[in-house]
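stage 2 :: seqdesign
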């Protein structure tokens, strides 16, 4: 059985940083595309960024230069590093994984974490 378990700080002030972690069991993440998606009442699981097994990456424009994905294959964990956070980054963030050659569309991913509510507020 494949499971993705998310963890991370959930409340941060504007301008701050946080790291979300996504630990997998039942598969090896280095063979898979990893995606992070956000969910709000207005945006249903919008792709924020994805990294493929060949290290090619997709980012939405609003997070370029501020958000990064990294992998720790020894721990089978992926991380979302979020810097210079803004109130509009408040959302539920989901990690997901799938074997994909390209793309960052939520419908293409079978395996999902439980979601983490991130609130950016003073």
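stage 2 :: out
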């Amino acid at each position: 059985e494949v499971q993705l378990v998310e963890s991370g700080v959930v409340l941060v002030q504007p301008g701050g940083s946080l790291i979300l972690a996504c630990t997998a069991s039942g598969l090896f993440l280095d063979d898979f595309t990893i995606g992070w998606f956000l969910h709000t009442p207005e945006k249903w699981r919008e792709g924020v960024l994805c990294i493929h097994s060949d290290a090619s990456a997709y980012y939405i424009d609003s997070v370029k230069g501020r958000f990064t994905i990294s992998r720790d294959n020894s721990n089978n964990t992926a991380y979302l590093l979020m810097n210079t956070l803004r109130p509009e980054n408040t959302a539920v963030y989901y990690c997901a994984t799938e074997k994909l050659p390209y793309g960052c569309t939520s419908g293409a991913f079978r395996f999902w974490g439980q979601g983490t509510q991130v609130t950016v507020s003073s």
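stage 3 :: structure notes
- The radius of gyration is 13 Å.
- The chain has a mean pLDDT of 93.
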